[in-house]
Amino acid sequence: MQSSDRSDAIKPFYVMEAVRAAQELEAAGHEILHLEVGQPSTKAPKLVREAAHAALDNNVLGYTMPHGIPELRDGIAGWYDIRYGLDVDPGRIIVTPGASGSCAVAFLSLFDVGDRVGVIEAGYPCYRNDLAVLGIDVVSIPVGPETNYKPTPAILEAHGRLDGLVVASPSNPTGTVLNQAELTELSDWAEAAGTHLIVDEIYHGITYDKPAPSALGLENPNVTVFNSFSKYWSMTGWRLGWIVVPTGLFDPFERVLANLLISAPTLSQIGGVAALEAVDECEANVARYAENRAILLEGLPKAGIDQIAPPDGAFYVWADIGHLLGSHNCANSQELCRRWLEDIGVAATPGIDFDLARGDRFVRFSYAGDAGQITTAVERLTSWCQRTT
């Protein structure tokens, strides 16, 4: 028996390869400093854990309606009001098994085989991989330092007609944030072009200079927005997210979710209701990320790693390390990251996951972890990068 051509064509998720390599060395007794993992190192908020314990003791925890429990949908709508001053109808909100579930549901609901959908590079690789496995024509749209790693209408126009466009703000891996004017410009372009605009806001809440505006504040009823409890609320393993669907498209989105996934985990949904009240604990985590960010922004240039995207949000530094490759006898960022892991116990993620064309000369550093580990990692990187072979 053979697997399908579609599954054979899908590319690996190289981030997980980096995680596995680091875990294997750690299991063998090596000390590993983790700057590769794209998830918070903190537990879910205390209120979430308490609500989950109570639900385990007292609730049946059967299926919910595909769109989620009303308390959570109402709570998410209330969060948009408190956080952004936006009046979002709970009837547009569908709860999903993580933002990954949102991707699958939205892509199946909006696009047909052969449609052309733009994805930003550098960007989250699973957009590209999910679209490709569904038979959708993925259009890679490279962005770079000349636009602060953000797409513009001029860049989009150069790639021809697009049926859809997926953007993230804040972005993984670059950490860039689209401000209100930039979101409006993209939205106006999408409406004029007849392009479905999908905005991934999974890192909302984790910004450093100013809050990220939500695309739901746009005067565009056709925008689709994802979010998740994974990052700001430190609930990656709970697999809980949501979609705010375009006006008039609730039924097709829900039909896809019901047939594909039935519903998000009931226990996680109960935890999600409690999470919305855990602002103080979540904001303390963001303050810790800010401290970790400062360690990297001060320390990496001392290691000669100074060509980085502006990390205005999320918890990553996206760095051009092409100038280090030749002097350290490395062919690409994959080999450089392997050397760092084996030589000095520092785990980072090679850029090939996020940018197929240019990722060989980029590395992503995560600062979601422990400040002490990050400080030590910078010291080791500085010592290693100052050596030449």
Give a structural overview.
This protein has two domains: 5-43 and 280-385, Aspartate Aminotransferase, domain 2, CATH 3.40.640.10; 61-278, Type I PLP-dependent aspartate aminotransferase-like (Major domain) (Aspartate Aminotransferase, domain 2, 3-Layer(aba) Sandwich). The chain is 42% helix and 13% strand. It contains 14 helices and twelve strands. It has helices at 5-9, 14-27, 46-58, 70-84, 98-110, 125-133, 153-157, 180-193, 250-261, 266-275, 279-299, 322-325, 333-344, 371-385, and strands at residues 33-34, 93-96, 116-121, 137-142, 164-168, 196-200, 224-228, 241-244, 316-320, 346-347, 349-350, 362-366. The strands form three sheets. Strands 2-8-7-6-5-3-4 form a seven-stranded mixed β-sheet, sandwiched between helices. A three-stranded antiparallel β-sheet has the order 9-12-11. α3 packs antiparallel against α10, α4 runs parallel beside α10 and α11 runs parallel beside α14 (371-385). The N and C termini lie far apart (48 Å). The mean pLDDT is 95.
